[in-house]
Amino acid sequence: MFTLRPHQKVLFNFGQLYPIYTKSEFWRLLLSLEQHKNETHLFFSLLFKMHFFSFIEHNIGFKNTMLIYFMSGISSTLFQAIVSQQVGVCGSFHVGAIGYALYLQQQMLQKCSAQQQLQFYFDLQVSQDYGLTLIKVAIVLSVMYITSLKFHGILMIGSLLFGIQCMILGQYFSYEQKKQQQLQLTNSTKQTQLIKYIYLGGSIVVIITELIVFFQLKNHIEI
C-alpha cells in the first residue's frame, strides 16, 4: 500500500474514491491493479494470486498470464470509471483466475481414464489438488462477499468485469495452445482458430468501446 502524493489528497488511497474526470492524469487508471484498501485486502489478494497465478502461468506462460492480467484490469477500471465516474480499489483477478484455473483442470480431467477421473476427484495428490481447489473457491467467494459488505471502497462491479474479461482472454490462449499442439490443419482446427479469434476480437472490442465512451464522457465534463 502506498500513496501517490503524500502532501495531497491522493487517488486510490485505502479505497478512497476520487472523480477521475476532474484530473488529466489518466495513467493513474493502471494503479488500481495494485492498490489495496487495507492489510487484510492486500494479504488475501497476494495469497490468491500466488496460488492461481502459478497454475495459470505453468499452463500458458508468464507473458500470456501478464497480458491477461493487465488487459482485464484496464478494461474493468475503465468500466468502473464510466459507471460511477470514480476510480477506487478494483481490478480483482480472483474471479477470473479461479474460473480459468478450473477450466484448465477440467481439460486435464478429460484426458484421464474413468479410474483416473475417480482418483482425480478424491485423491488430492493424484488430482493435483482439484478437490482442495474447490474448497479454496468456496473460501474465496465467501471472502469476496464479506469484503463487499464491509469494505465499501472496494468496487466490486469492476472486479466482476475483470473476472469475465480474464476468462474470455484465457479461452483465447487455451485455443492458441491447442493449435500449436496439432500438426495438421483440419476442419476442427479451423473451427478452433475461428473461436480463438472471436474471443480475442471480443475482448479488444470491449476495451476499445470503453476507451471511446470514457473519453467522450470526459469531454462533456466541465473541469
Topology:
Layout: E1 18-19, H1 39-60, H2 62-84, E2 86-87, H3 94-110, H4 114-122, H5 130-150, H6 156-181, H7 187-219
Antiparallel strand pairs: 1-2
Helix pairs in contact: 1-2, 1-3, 2-6, 2-7, 3-5, 3-6, 6-7
Describe this structure in words.
Strands 1-2 form a two-stranded antiparallel ribbon. It is globular. The protein has helices at 39-60, 62-84, 94-110, 114-122, 130-150, 156-181, 187-219; strands at 18-19, 86-87. Helix 1 (39-60) crosses helix 2, helix 1 (39-60) runs parallel beside helix 3 (94-110) and helix 2 (62-84) runs parallel beside helix 7 (187-219). Mean pLDDT is 64; it is low at 1-15 and 120-128. By secondary structure, it is mainly alpha-helical. 68% of the residues lie in helices and 2% in strands. The protein contains seven helices and two strands; from the N terminus they run βααβααααα. The chain has one domain (13-167, 210-219).
Summarize the structure in short.
Pfam families: Rhomboid (PF01694). By secondary structure, the protein is mainly alpha-helical.
